[in-house]
């Protein structure tokens, strides 16, 4: 199994995916091989894979990510005649009860964080980048003045490799102007060095706790940004132009609550108007 995974790492199928996805997939497969790397991949059957999946039922998202990674490895094996069939193709994904994922910040939670961390603090600057750009933490920690020209910031998303241009909103610019920033990146550690994505996530987690918001996270700010754009009437494709999502389905998960409220408001207007 380890040999097959190593062959897959050398394939165009693996090298053509974005750097962020490659790191994630390699981490999943390397961990799998720590336990199963010495087993014969030719003897792997769907029933075996279902057992691996079921052992992770308390972590359905992780189980499904493992299935996705293994499915690509065995797809490669079939394409290069190492196997006749893909044993993972017939294995069902686990259902995830909470499809909403990370908690999206409410307006009250945003106000609570901002009252705890005033303009001028590093925490408020970090929050402003998350909220007013709608980007992932892995992209926010890369942002610097060199990426800005004529009021627009160019972002190459670390997870997808996608290049997008987003406007620097007035609220964000005013907070940048009032804050101490780094040289190569706006956000830096206490030692003056750029954050890593995980390091930033852990640091921001502490800032949420300081504000009495243990249920909130950096990723949840991205959801709140998308939801706010939906609240003010932006279309799904307009939201995608800011967040950089590739599919409508992904954005609809962020915005379904706002869309439901808008539709309900139309119903109210029609009923009141008829009455």
Description:
By secondary structure, this protein is mainly alpha-helical. It has 2 domains: 2-79, Orthogonal Bundle (DNA polymerase, domain 1); 107-266, Intergrase catalytic core (hpI Integrase, Chain A, Orthogonal Bundle), CATH 1.10.443.10. It is built from 13 helices and 3 strands, in the order H-H-H-H-H-H-H-H-E-E-E-H-H-H-H-H. The chain has a 3-stranded antiparallel β-sheet, with no helix packed on it. A hairpin with a 2-residue loop joins strand 1 (148-149) and strand 2. The model has no long low-confidence stretch (mean pLDDT 89).
Précis, in short:
The chain is mainly alpha-helical and about 280 residues long. It has 2 domains: about 1-80, Orthogonal Bundle (DNA polymerase, domain 1), CATH 1.10.150; about 105-265, hpI Integrase, Chain A, CATH 1.10.443. The protein has helices at about 1-10, 10-15, 20-35, 45-55, 60-80, 105-115, 120-135, 135-140, 170-175, 195-210, 220-230, 235-245, 250-275; strands at about 150, 150-155, 165.
Report the uncertain regions. none
Q: The biggest beta sheet, please?
A: 3 strands, antiparallel
- Output the radius of gyration: 22 Å
Secondary-structure element sequence? HHHHHHHHEEEHHHHH
CATH topology of the largest domain: hpI Integrase, Chain A
Overall morphology = globular
Contiguous helical run count: 13
Alpha-carbon distance between the two ends: 69 Å
- Give the helix/strand class: mainly alpha
Q: What is the strand arrangement across the widest sheet? A: 1-2-3
The overall number of domains is: 2
Q: Quick check: average pLDDT? A: 89
E-strand count: 3
CATH class of the largest domain: Mainly Alpha
CATH architecture descriptor name of the largest domain: Orthogonal Bundle
Q: Which percent bin holds the helix content?
A: 55-70%
- Report the portion of residues in β strands: under 5%
Q: What's the CATH H-level homologous superfamily of the largest domain? A: Intergrase catalytic core
